[in-house]
Design a protein that fits this description.
- By secondary structure, the chain is mostly helical.
- Helices cover about 35% and strands about 5% of the residues.
- The chain has five helices and four strands.
- It has helices spanning about 1-20, 35-45, 85-90, 105, 125-135; strands at about 55, 70-75, 105-110, 110.
- The strands form two sheets. Strands 1-2 form a two-stranded parallel sheet. Strands 3-4 form a two-stranded antiparallel sheet.
- Strand 3 and strand 4 form a beta hairpin.
- The longest helix has 18 residues, at about 1-20.
- The relative contact order is 0.20.
Length: about 150
């Protein structure tokens, strides 16, 4: 009986430890197919991202500058730690709003001033953009989804 209790306890503890790595903050889970980082840089130019953001070592070029917003992207971030958070930040800019800037400069009524590009940006553009941006962040390591041809 003691052996059965010990086995059950170890199993429950192991299951609990394993499940800790599967939450929303986990680096595991879904990822897009690998994109093209060079094309991602073109997406940044197309959608004028650098009018409100700055990326180290990336020239702003000919963008309409919005001096009240100069939000840095990349590096070690307290808000964007995983691949999933990076994707979410692009498709849902109001998900987590940076608090280090004067609130009225980056949000209105608790929502990000960043335009939602979900109806304009193609999935391929999003994949390439995220591929580019993930090279600029210090993300928690993760394994990309292994996309294979499935036979039915």
């Amino acid at each position: 009986m003691k052996y059965l209790i010990a086995v059950c306890s170890v199993s429950l503890i192991s299951l609990g430890l394993i499940s800790c790595d599967l939450g929303p903050e986990s680096p595991r889970g879904f990822s897009f197919p690998k994109g093209d980082s060079n094309q991602g840089e073109l997406v940044i130019a197309k959608y004028q991202c650098l009018s409100c953001h700055q990326i180290k070592d990336l020239d702003k070029g000919n963008v309409i500058d919005n001096p009240e917003l100069n939000i840095p992207l990349g590096g070690k971030s307290t808000k964007v730690k995983t691949y999933a958070e990076l994707v979410t930040s692009v498709i849902n800019p109001s998900h987590k709003i940076v608090k280090s800037y004067p609130k009225d400069s980056y949000s209105t009524d608790g929502k990000s001033k960043m335009k939602n590009f979900n109806e304009e940006m193609t999935i391929n553009e999003l994949i390439n953009l995220v591929t580019y941006l993930e090279t600029k962040y210090e993300l928690i390591p993760y394994s990309h989804t292994n996309y294979q041809l499935y036979n039915y």
